[in-house]
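fyi for ur records
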Amino acid sequence: MVKKKSVNKKVSRKVSKSVSKKSRKSSSQKTKFNQNKFEFVIKRLILFLIGFIAVFVLYFVTGNQMMKDVLGLLAIIFGFISLAFLIVFLIFLFLKILKR
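which gave:
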């Protein structure tokens, strides 16, 4: 029984050392990871806003009723997606301001 206890102590020390190393790595990667998320949201927001504006302009230019219906539906979809990215962008912006 004594041998088993000593083996368990060695294993628990190794586990605690590896956990502490992981926590150090994750804390340094958090700022970079949030910056990547922030850039991703900005890129997607710009992309969907451009798509929304393009579809909205095409909606008024076209004369075909079927195309107007399809473009109107696409405008609604692009609008909601861009609104969602705008909300996420504002949340990240407020978190960045409050962090300072």
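The first helix runs from residue 2 to 61. thats all i got for now
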